[in-house]
Specification:
The chain has 276 residues and is of the alpha/beta class. It contains eight helices and 14 strands. Strands 9-8-10-11-12-13 form a six-stranded mixed β-sheet. Helix 7 links the parallel strand 10 and strand 11.
């Protein structure tokens, strides 16, 4: 049985009548991410965040989250991943990794609906990436972009059963799906994809790839993509004003409303090749 799916009795009411049936639901549970850091007798453990997530690929989620929050810069900084219980994952960092626990205490709390809830200010979430996409690279044909949502949807097994999961997919410039992750939280899905890429030895920065998200393109998703040096973020839904501003400042092409053979480009359109 798919551990991402649960079942509940539901009653559907329509003008035509009442229908009792069993409904498939996406599972949502808390995950506490802890880190171990320091050397020798000075080693500490610290609870970084609790996120409401769909269980599965939790190691990817933890690594991706720590990377996009600027705690990790490379997967080689991880010494071990250890489960404390079913919903608590300890990420043991190499002894030389410095951690600012005061900053983490002030700023890090996540939920399934918002990747930046609880952050004290815009400055706290606008983590500066050390990567900047190469201007005009890669160049993607509009026809390639048209096909990305359907490729993502075909690979979404849990969404087909529940309709309740967000997805994030990493594609190459030819439109081939390389990695897919699903989660009840859109930011979790992005963290899972980035974490999976880091754990699979994809080389930073991710300047050769494209990220597609199944929902809207909020600020936190652009920020996470920018941390990895992704040159293009495409979304089926709408961007926000802040996400457009961050994409412009980060050198990233931001695509929204990617549906059928239509989309909007909000920043750095030189990466999109059209026939006219």
């Amino acid at each position: 049985m798919n551990k991402n799916i649960s079942f509940a009795e539901a009653r559907t009411i329509t003008p035509q009548g009442v229908h009792n049936h069993t409904e498939a639901l996406v599972v949502e549970e808390p995950l506490e991410i802890r880190i171990g850091f320091g050397a020798g007798d000075e080693r500490q453990r610290f609870s970084v965040a609790v996120t409401m997530r769909t269980p599965g690929e939790d190691e990817d989620l933890a690594v991706g989250f720590l990377f996009t929050e600027g705690i990790l810069s490379d997967f080689r900084q991880v010494m071990a991943l250890k489960w404390q219980d079913d919903n608590t994952l300890l990420v043991e960092l190499q002894p030389g990794i410095a951690v600012d626990t005061e900053r983490l205490s002030r700023h890090l709390f996540t939920s399934s609906s918002c990747g930046v809830c609880g952050k004290a200010s815009l400055d706290a979430v606008q983590t500066l990436s050390c990567y900047y996409p190469l201007p005009g690279q890669p160049e993607l044909d509009a026809q390639v972009l048209y096909g990305l949502p359907e490729a993502l949807r075909r690979a979404q097994a849990a969404f087909e059963a529940t309709g309740g999961l967000h997805a994030a997919g990493l594609f190459d410039a030819a439109g081939q799906l390389l990695l897919l992750r699903e989660d009840v939280g859109r930011h979790n899905a992005v963290d899972k994809v980035i974490g999976a890429a880091l754990r699979s030895a994809y080389h930073l920065p991710f300047r050769e790839y494209v990220l597609l998200v199944s929902g809207r393109a909020g600020f936190e998703l652009v920020q996470k993509a920018a941390m990895a040096g992704l040159p293009l973020l495409a979304a089926v839904g709408a961007p926000s004003s802040l996400s457009v501003r961050l994409a412009q400042e980060s050198g990233m092409t931001l695509v929204g409303f990617l549906r059928g053979e239509r989309f909007n480009v909000y920043s750095h359109p030189d990466r999109v090749r059209t026939r006219r």
